[in-house]
Design a protein that fits this description.
2 domains; two-stranded antiparallel ribbon; 13 helices; binds S-adenosyl-L-homocysteine; binds iron/sulfur cluster
Length: 398
Amino acid sequence: MKSDLTSAAPPPRERGAIDPYALDRDGLTALFAELGAPAYRARQLHAWLVRGVDDPREMTDLPKDLRDQLAERFAPARPELVAHRVADDGHTHKLLLRYPDGESIETVLMLYPGRATVCISTQAGCAMGCPFCATGQAGFRRQLTAGEVIRQVVLCDAALRSGTIDRDALPADAPDHVTNVVFMGMGEPLANLPATLATVRWLHDPDGFRLSARGITVSTVGLVPGIDKLADVGLPVTLAVSLHAATDELRDELVPINRTHPLAELEDAVRRYRDRTNRRVSIEWCLIGDVNDDAHQADRVAAIAKRLRAHVNVIPMNPTPGVRWKEPSARATSAFVDRIEQRGANVTLRDTRGRDADAACGQLLASYDLGAGTMLPAAIGAADRVDKLLPLTGEPGS
Ligand code: SAH
Ligand code: SF4
């Protein structure tokens, strides 16, 4: 992908403060009313934004005076592409984007036969502090704006459409546009509700990106109020809940927000979401060697999944710099998956290659910031406490 897609320097004439991608339908209507422009112009503006054009002076179907007025108001918040790593024979594109304030985030484009999925970030860093997660180790830096979140999708879509992604290695049926979006990059989407909800609406909007709600997956650590707010949007967006532990004592350590919203409360919220949207929920399970790969956890998660009619996605942990836990053995992994299946729940094992690891983003920035072997304080504390817990959580899974 060429870096001119992200053109680092904003155009010199900008004096406004509005990132056009952050304007929802209401915001656009208000702006166009203020400028005395008819409402149908908004649709034309959207069409340009969807194509990745954010400089009004290039929007040739708008009248010249309107283009000038918009150029006065807009301050496009364009990131700089500081790294682009290609993996899996061209099927995975990991982008590291940096904003003018110096904060960086990661976006991953994954190409499959018939499907192009973008994994987007909603925050620079994350405050949730899950000790196995590279983003959690770095702590919270700042919220991304709606425009900064949406742009990640537009950037990948424009790259696919313009042919700047080398397609030689790809299957002939790899799409030339984005078909799916997963909120599984850096940050907790439901801890940045304004940007997450605006992005969901924009992605689905017939004047916006026109993506099917089913093609959108929001992954959450389990922020109960946010799950209800997402249901309020009224779109059947897929909800993925990062469970990782099926007992409160272990989940308190692996997913610290469990101390605020324990399993029973989370289960109720997921049930409400499912009932309101009619969508099957996914349970994400990052499988960590000798930590959450035992038979007791398998039995408990199978029971939860059956009660919720949810699907369990097991993802072997990606080794993270600064975290002493390891990915599980192949034997423990298949024993864990088989046991869930035997208990009558739906389960899938994701393979760990970047292209299939939808849920394993957040690692590119970590490899920039941290040297291997650095053990981080939060991870040490959690690892020590989990060591003490383990005898309580049942027989080993292998
Ligand atoms: N904050 C949200 C979304 C971003 S994290 C959430 O936690 O759901 C996306 C997914 O990546 C989560 O399921 C998370 O648990 C998983 N993940 C984090 N670190 C990982 C690692 N080292 N290996 C595998 N999956 C990981
Ligand atoms: Fe944040 Fe998700 Fe990482 Fe937990 S797993 S620290 S919620 S990004």
